[in-house]
Design a protein that fits this description.
Helices cover 72% and strands 0% of the residues. It is mostly helical and 148 residues long. It has one domain. The two termini are 41 Å apart.
């Protein structure tokens, strides 16, 4: 992954981990140990799904740039659908508190999306690749601007 992609990944993951830790503490206080476990599992799922989605989206942007926007929309819809499936699959579990799991999953997803949006807004990504400044053999370089 290029450094810009890693930076965006880190800027989205760190706030999500912080929100997940707060959710685990609050869930632990409200629902006991099973609540903390549910919040922890939800945070790991959010980071896994959203991080994998960001990786897939970046690979698509490099190999198939004309599909980038459609792929992004499809990817987010798929991620939300998968998270909903996990919430439905674990709604009657006894491994952890399902309510703490569901709330932490939603809050973690919103934290990731908000942090990723913020990171993209603040990143300086070139929209057009600049041409190399070295002139080809036999061509004179044409300088523009002030020469002083």
């Amino acid at each position: 992954m290029p450094s810009n992609d890693v930076r965006i990944l880190a800027q989205a993951a760190v706030p999500t981990v912080a929100v997940g830790a707060i959710a685990a503490v609050v869930s632990g206080v409200v629902a006991g140990g099973k609540g903390a476990i549910g919040a922890g599992v939800a945070t790991v799922l959010v980071i896994l799904f959203m991080g994998l989605g960001l990786y897939v989206l970046q690979r698509t942007a490099k190999s198939l740039p004309h599909l980038f926007q459609a792929m992004g929309l499809m990817l987010y819809a798929t991620q939300i659908l998968l998270l909903f499936i996990f919430m439905a699959a674990f709604k009657n579990t006894t491994l952890f508190n399902p309510r703490a799991f569901a709330i932490s999953l939603v809050v973690g997803t919103l934290a990731w999306i908000g942090a990723q949006t913020w990171a993209h807004m603040k990143s300086k990504i070139l929209y057009v690749e600049p041409e190399p400044s070295n002139p080809a053999k036999g061509e004179q370089s044409h300088k523009s601007g002030h020469s002083s």
